[in-house]
Amino acid sequence: MKLNNIMKQARQMQSQIMQLQENLANEIVEASVGGGMVIATFTGQGDLVSIKIDPEVINPDDKDMLEDLVASAINEGLKKSRDLMSEKMGGLTGTLGIGMGGL
Q1: Which of 1, 2, 12, 72 yields a CA-CA distance of 20 to 30 A from 29?
Q2: pLDDT-wise least confident of 8-22, 33-47, 69-83
Q3: Phi-psi region for residue 84, left (φ > 0), alpha (ψ -120 to 50) or beta?
Q4: 3 state SS of 32
């Protein structure tokens, strides 16, 4: 009897995870660095959607600064995407009464 409940809960969780992944693909997070000079946009799944670079920051004599800004924007965007995913996943596992390490 208990095994049936566990299997039912596992199927329910699998379905909810699939729905969560679809939802995350439609969520957008942005990371802005350098006072908005570089903006990286990601989906909630961590896919890079776009990078916008203010023309004022494009200086052939200082490409290192631009590279640093782009790297910072990407890292911050990935962090925001991961945080969103963790938040959504935490809500999902909480509704099932399961902690993140509970399976």
Answers
A1: 12
A2: 8-22
A3: alpha
A4: strand
Identify the bridge partners of residue 28 per DSSP, sorted by sequence position.
Answer: 43
- CA neighbor of 20 nearest in space, from 71, 86, 100: 86
Query: Mean pLDDT score of the chain, rounded to an integer?
Result: 87
Residue 97 pLDDT greater than 60, yes or no: no
CB 77 within 8 A of CB 48: yes
Which among 103, 29, 12 has a CA at the least distance from the CA of 73? 29
H helices, E strands: number in the chain: 2, 3
Smallest CA-to-CA distance from 102 within 92, 93, 84, 5 is with 93
Report the predicted TM-score, pTM, of the whole model to 2 decimal places: 0.74
